[in-house]
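Q: Structure tokens for this one, please.
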Amino acid sequence: MISMHALRRFLAVALLAIAGSTALAAGRFDPPVDGLPDYATRFDAARDPEADLQRALAAATQKNQRVLLMVGGDWCVWCFLLDRHFDRDREAAKRFYGGFEVMRVYYNDDNRNQAFLSKFPDFTLFPHFFVVEADGRVAGSVVADVMIREARYDNALIDRFIASWQPSPPR
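A: Here is the predicted structure, written as tokens:
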């Protein structure tokens, strides 16, 4: 018997396929917040995630934030749906990108970024999120399901996720 969770995921994928091509599906994602670094807005097999992480950690330190690594790719349906959610709800995007120094890490058959990702806990679902302290320690390994309700990204769950991973204020 198929679980309700698996059925919802299947239906979301099917609906996405039926929806046809959009600007997001074609890779023309308009960043939801001005001034975001390139590593925050797109998956790119050619990027150096180690160099990106050093830049993200430096930025997070300045802002008293944590880095949120988002592992996925252009093939990832739930990555696409998160981008589409933020494209449609810019205020939610501002809260998400304002709560973390977001960094995307490309993962696909042509480049799994194994050397980089071997430093993190194992994972199987995409997108997968790693919350990283400004000193580089992994604070958490999180599946996207914590932000999804009824086969959709949900703002209340996104806000709860953001709030639960905020660092303590500096002393």
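A few notes: Confidence is low (pLDDT under 50) at residues 14-28. DSSP finds seven helices and six strands in the chain.
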